[in-house]
Amino acid sequence: MEIEGEVGIVLSLDLLSTKLRTFANLFVRIPNENILKNSVKTSSKYKVRRITVDFSIAYKEKIAEAKEVVRKFPKASPLVLEEPKPMTITTSLADSGVLLEGIVWIDRTQLLKAKDVVTAGIKKALDDAGIEIPHPHLTLYLGDPKLLSKKGSAVAPFGARIPKTRILPLKDSHRPKRKNHQ
């Protein structure tokens, strides 16, 4: 059950409060007036649960091919239910790649194990198919190399000058004082 962001098993429902044991084995007491004012989620009402695994592929990869590779994986896992059918959807175009979601349904009693198996399985399926999972990239533009002057400065994209860096010597007043050891 999830109440006010706390997830756990209900230990007791008393006149003034509800007591939970979280999955980290913490005791949480929530006043019943808060429960009446907020939404309550329960994960034990239905026998099946949905797992969503977010992943990304490089822009150079074909989205349809990645979806097909990920769509085939769950059929090999006994933890994934055949119905509702697993699916993969494209969710966003991010800085370093195309974001997708793998969606599968599992028996609620196998949630953590299934999440682990499905996440690792998607990674392995993409690796085996040679589909790149990207990492953040940064391209630094320093101007056209043809525009470099003999003095070592470059022209930046919008006409600003980028001077060559020089290291200036420290003045005597900024140098650390040495102790005389005799």
UniProtKB/TrEMBL annotation:
<keyword id="KW-1133">Transmembrane helix</keyword>
<dbReference type="InterPro" id="IPR023408">
    <property type="entry name" value="MscS_beta-dom_sf"/>
</dbReference>
<dbReference type="GO" id="GO:0008381">
    <property type="term" value="F:mechanosensitive monoatomic ion channel activity"/>
</dbReference>
<keyword id="KW-1003">Cell membrane</keyword>
<dbReference type="Pfam" id="PF00924">
    <property type="entry name" value="MS_channel_2nd"/>
</dbReference>
<protein>
    <recommendedName>
        <fullName>Mechanosensitive ion channel protein MscS</fullName>
    </recommendedName>
</protein>
<dbReference type="GO" id="GO:0005886">
    <property type="term" value="C:plasma membrane"/>
</dbReference>
<dbReference type="InterPro" id="IPR049278">
    <property type="entry name" value="MS_channel_C"/>
</dbReference>
<dbReference type="InterPro" id="IPR045275">
    <property type="entry name" value="MscS_archaea/bacteria_type"/>
</dbReference>
<feature type="domain" description="Mechanosensitive ion channel MscS C-terminal">
    <location>
        <begin position="51"/>
        <end position="133"/>
    </location>
</feature>
<keyword id="KW-0472">Membrane</keyword>
<keyword id="KW-0812">Transmembrane</keyword>
<dbReference type="InterPro" id="IPR011066">
    <property type="entry name" value="MscS_channel_C_sf"/>
</dbReference>
<comment type="similarity">
    <text>Belongs to the MscS (TC 1.A.23) family.</text>
</comment>
<dbReference type="InterPro" id="IPR006685">
    <property type="entry name" value="MscS_channel_2nd"/>
</dbReference>
<dbReference type="Pfam" id="PF21082">
    <property type="entry name" value="MS_channel_3rd"/>
</dbReference>
<dbReference type="InterPro" id="IPR010920">
    <property type="entry name" value="LSM_dom_sf"/>
</dbReference>
<feature type="domain" description="Mechanosensitive ion channel MscS">
    <location>
        <begin position="2"/>
        <end position="41"/>
    </location>
</feature>
